[in-house]
Task: inverse folding
């Protein structure tokens, strides 16, 4: 596949031999790729701010600054040059914010950022050595530590969202989140249930309209609601070859097929496959988190296995687990497996003889 | 190991010696263990009984004393006080010796593991009048609130578990509904954020009431409704 | 260091203190981590577990040391296990008699003291080669070191995880507990942080001593 593409490219160039030197191009460096990923995420951030207001903006800014600050500080403490300039930590911050509920208290977001960057990335040796996606490590910690606030959802397009913070956002450090009952009463009079499409599906067997899911007019984490927008941003990255298209492709395909099988068995009990693709954080996870260059496998076959693993586990957790959403744990699990996947799926070197068993 | 194969090493002691040593040590051990067991047994039994009594009196508000029963398909059998571990129904009596209610165990799968509860049942109003958690590994701060959240425990002021007139089944099975959606007397209003554990409590109650209450109705005659009067009639 | 391993060590402060700092079973030797991670969700559980282990450690150490000349080498491990199991059973009954709630909180980990490698390790490496008094003092030191380590974890986990210390509420009712520290993953996080701290302090000390040596050499 890759080979044929190279050949056809060569053929095109052979026809149009109007090339001056230099003919060699430098592969885009880490910071260029990372900067492009940040650009690709900005529309999602903008939509999140439009949808959830200044609380969402505060969340994104806080997470990003906290992540950059943590990385800078730890680099300084260990007498190493600061690595904040490669933009990767900014991605971590933005991604983390996008996976948190818009009403999440800012101090908890700072805790999640510090844990994600310090434990998830720098303790392993920094960029290139982290086993798991740092943003997801931070979120997993937050989910285990602050389960309540992390599963508190607020209405989308709430009234006065650009002039007023959600009360719980501005909770003082180490305190329980401020109550949002009063705020809910005057912003969403028509009985907001506080449930995401996934929770509605799981506990009440109520499906949400597909168009709504695509546009993003649902409750949910700050940046996971609009499946369509995420897909467009992802496609931009893939066209610019800044992300591996095969990983999201295999994740989404596997999720589609797996949930399709269950849907065929009992359409009343299980969600339809399109709902599975567009609801929750699957799209955001598949496009921006599973594609983390460090924590995903490097071999062509490995990438396929990795994608299948994530798609399958996500659907299984969603349908049969106690949680409503399984993308985070699916990706973390696959991250942990990816060195193994890479090792098993090493392509044979041309002409090399396979070593016999028992010999080094 | 290699040492033993070496001919210059000291010869192996006779296996008889080894056996005697081990047997000796085992005897000392046995003696110590039996001694401790004998010494601590009364305290341990007392502790277990106290824990059970505390639980029974939590779910039956006015109870002061209890009697153990074993309820099976065959009948309702009164057990002596020492056999409390075998009992599955505990009858509670108030100061005057009148039956205030029955405490029974129930369990269902929760978020982490099986949640085991003890619930109180008042035969005169046919209501579940209280619950307490005996065993649970639910998430601290969320699932474990079922034992302490006052709003949740308010569900069990009088949770309807009425039997059909012929006593064969419960009219309305107990069920858990989402927070704020309770409309009927037999519904449990879940704790928001701990729906799964709340549902587990509901499932446990539903299952236990549907099997135990019809049985209880069948063998109602063997249940003493008055403790003192029973004693006085014997005299 | 060449000396006859069978020669009894002289009794000294070191006999006691090595278990607390230099050879701390948890922070230095990384032994017995199962209870360290599992039952340190509250300070009370940690303390109870530490004391239970110390009791078994001391009693089995003394008995092994008393019988060290009687037990043939071939059956020594079997004998040690029997002795340790005896004291574990005794502890198990004792805890049930003291408090049923505590017994429930500690769960299977009281019985599992029997396979705690610290105890068998001490019996094999120390008590079987030293006098009764030495064995007693050494086991006591190890027990104190183990209890100290458990408390280090238990205190952090209880304060952050439930906002209490020995069930006394420390902060106001609006304190947000970090549930993760009461859950099993919290054990790993806190243990890692303590190990980090201990090795940081040890390395710093070693560096300072090296520098001092260099300075004295130069002088």
Result:
């Amino acid at each position: 596949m890759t080979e044929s593409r190279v050949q056809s490219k060569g053929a095109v160039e052979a026809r149009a031999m109007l090339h001056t030197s230099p003919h060699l191009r430098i592969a885009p460096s880490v910071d260029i790729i990372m900067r492009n990923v940040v650009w690709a995420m900005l529309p999602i951030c903008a939509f999140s701010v439009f949808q959830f207001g200044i609380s969402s903006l505060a969340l994104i800014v806080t997470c990003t600054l906290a992540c950059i600050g943590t990385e800078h500080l730890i680099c300084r403490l260990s007498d190493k040059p600061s690595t904040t300039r490669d933009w990767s930590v900014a991605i971590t911050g933005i991604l983390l914010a996008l996976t948190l509920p818009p009403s999440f208290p800012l101090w908890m977001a700072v805790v999640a950022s510090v844990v994600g960057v310090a434990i998830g990335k720098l303790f392993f040796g920094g960029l290139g050595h982290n086993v798991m996606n740092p943003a997801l490590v931070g979120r997993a910690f937050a989910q285990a530590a602050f389960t309540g606030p992390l599963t508190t959802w607020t209405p989308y397009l709430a009234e006065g969202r650009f002039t007023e913070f959600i009360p719980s956002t501005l909770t003082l450090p180490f305190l329980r989140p401020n109550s949002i009952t009063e705020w809910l009463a005057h912003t969403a009079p028509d009985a907001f249930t506080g449930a995401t499409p996934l929770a509605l599906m799981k506990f009440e067997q109520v499906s949400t309209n597909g168009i709504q899911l695509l546009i993003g007019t649902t409750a949910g984490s700050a940046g996971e609601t609009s499946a369509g927008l995420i897909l467009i941003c992802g496609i931009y990255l893939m066209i610019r070859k800044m992300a591996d298209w095969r990983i999201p492709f295999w994740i989404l395909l596997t999720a589609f097929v797996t949930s399709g099988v269950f849907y065929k068995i009992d359409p009343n009990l299980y969600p339809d496959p399109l709902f599975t693709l567009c609801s929750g954080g699957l799209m955001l996870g598949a496009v921006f988190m599973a594609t983390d260059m460090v924590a995903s496998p490097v071999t062509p076959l490995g990438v396929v296995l990795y994608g299948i693993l994530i798609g399958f586990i996500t659907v299984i957790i969603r349908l049969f687990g106690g949680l409503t959403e399984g993308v985070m744990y699916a990706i973390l699990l696959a991250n942990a497996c990816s060195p193994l996947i890479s090792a098993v799926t090493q392509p044979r070197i041309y002409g090399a003889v396979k070593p016999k068993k028992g010999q080094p | 190991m290699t040492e033993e194969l070496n001919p210059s090493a000291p010869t192996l002691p006779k296996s008889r010696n080894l056996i005697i040593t081990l047997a000796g040590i085992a005897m000392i051990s046995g003696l110590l263990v039996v001694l401790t067991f004998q010494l601590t047994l009364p305290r341990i039994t007392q502790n277990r009984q106290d824990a059970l009594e505390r639980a029974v009196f939590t779910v039956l508000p006015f109870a002061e004393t209890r009697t153990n029963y074993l309820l099976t398909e065959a009948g309702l059998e009164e057990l002596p006080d020492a056999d409390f571990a075998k009992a599955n129904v505990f009858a509670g009596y108030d100061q005057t010796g009148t039956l205030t209610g029955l405490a029974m165990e129930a369990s269902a799968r929760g978020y982490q593991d099986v949640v085991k509860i003890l619930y109180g049942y008042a035969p005169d109003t046919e209501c579940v009048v209280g619950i307490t958690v005996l065993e649970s590994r639910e998430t601290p701060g969320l699932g474990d609130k079922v034992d302490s959240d006052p709003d949740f425990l308010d569900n069990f002021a009088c949770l309807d578990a009425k039997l059909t007139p012929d006593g064969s089944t419960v009219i309305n099975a107990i069920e858990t509904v989402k927070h704020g959606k309770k409309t009927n007397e037999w519904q449990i209003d879940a704790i928001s954020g701990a729906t799964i554990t709340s549902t587990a409590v509901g499932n446990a109650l539903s299952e236990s009431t549907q099997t135990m209450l019809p049985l209880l109705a069948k063998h109602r005659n063997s249940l003493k409704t008055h403790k003192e009067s029973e004693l006085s009639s014997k005299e | 260091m060449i000396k006859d391993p069978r020669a009894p060590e002289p009794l000294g402060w070191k006999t006691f203190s090595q278990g607390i700092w230099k050879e701390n079973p948890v922070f230095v030797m990384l032994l017995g981590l199962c209870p360290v991670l599992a039952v340190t969700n509250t300070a009370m559980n940690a303390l109870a577990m530490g004391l239970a282990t110390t009791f078994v450690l001391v009693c089995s150490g003394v008995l092994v040391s008393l019988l060290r000349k009687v037990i043939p080498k071939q059956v020594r491990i079997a004998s040690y296990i029997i002795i340790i199991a005896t004291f574990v059973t005794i502890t198990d009954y004792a805890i049930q008699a003291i408090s049923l709630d505590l017994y429930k909180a500690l769960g299977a980990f009281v019985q599992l003291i029997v396979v705690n490698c610290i105890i068998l390790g001490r019996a094999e490496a120390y008590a079987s080669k030293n006098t009764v008094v030495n064995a007693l003092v050494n086991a006591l030191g190890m027990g104190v070191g183990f209890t100290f380590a458990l408390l280090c974890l238990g205190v952090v986990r209880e304060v952050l995880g439930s906002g209490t210390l020995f069930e006394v509420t420390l902060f106001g009712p609006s304190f947000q507990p970090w549930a993760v520290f009461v859950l099993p993953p919290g054990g790993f996080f806190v243990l890692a942080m303590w190990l980090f701290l201990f090795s940081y302090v040890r390395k710093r000390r070693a560096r300072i001593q090296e520098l001092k040596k260099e300075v004295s050499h130069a002088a």
Residues 54-77 of chain A form the longest helix (24 residues). Residues 1-14 of chain A have pLDDT under 50 and may be disordered. Chain A is about 60% helix and 0% strand.
